[in-house]
Design a protein that fits this description.
TATA-Binding Protein; alpha+beta
């Protein structure tokens, strides 16, 4: 066998493969750079439209205030036990209630209806202020911008608040799941997460605006 010839064949094959891969890498980098530079120059509205991203309102340029907060996930077993003793209701949140991975879910027995969107805040605020209905209800605030009554699975969302500022995070949220019934909505259940011992890590500070966040 002509081993020298075989060596040259392998050498040329690997050389060709390396050149091919190098060319693919260079083309990918060039395309990435073009995309990056293009996104820098194309107006935001045009970029969103090109990706079929729709929105109803303009993005706010307001710089609101906020905190860096620390806290610990609430132990719902202990919280429920304390509420049962305080309210003198031994079976409070015992039936039709599950606690899994830091989330409490409760299926609602009574019929609570919302007839129209204008009633949402009133109904939800009343439920949050009812200590016989939900744990830590007064620590949450209705979040209209996160709620949705038009989807296939409508839901109303409330978030914990600190010093009057809403916390929009999955670890501190109360979600009411609704069911469309004729011309009104039935509140079927709620799922709850909660953070205890909230405290600021630093002083209140300005946060970026909605418009800055998406640029």
């Amino acid at each position: 066998m002509d081993f020298k010839k075989i060596e040259w064949i392998f050498f040329l094959a690997f050389l060709g493969l390396n050149l091919f891969l190098l060319n693919l890498y260079r083309e990918a980098r060039i395309e990435q750079n073009i995309t990056y530079r293009t996104n820098e120059t194309i107006p935001l509205k045009q970029r969103l439209a090109s990706e079929n991203i729709k929105y109803e309102e303009e993005f706010s340029e307001e710089n609101q205030m906020g905190y860096y907060l620390s806290g610990v996930p609430t132990d719902f077993y202990e919280a429920r036990k304390e509420a049962q003793a305080r309210l003198n209701i031994p079976d409070f949140l015992m039936s039709r209630t599950t606690i899994e991975e830091g989330m409490l879910t409760h299926l609602i027995d009574e019929s609570i209806y919302i007839k129209e969107a204008t009633q949402v805040e009133t109904v939800i605020t009343a439920l949050l202020n009812d200590e016989n209905f939900v744990l830590y209800g007064d620590s949450y605030r209705y979040l209209p911008q996160e709620s949705n009554l038009t989807s296939e699975y409508p839901e109303i969302i409330a978030g914990q608040e600190y010093d009057g500022i809403a916390i929009n995070d999955s670890s501190s949220r109360l979600i009411f799941s609704l069911e469309k019934s004729s011309d009104r909505f039935l509140v079927k259940k709620y799922s709850q997460t909660h953070i205890s011992d909230l405290s600021p890590l630093r002083e209140e500070m300005a946060i970026i605006s909605e418009k800055e966040a998406i640029n």
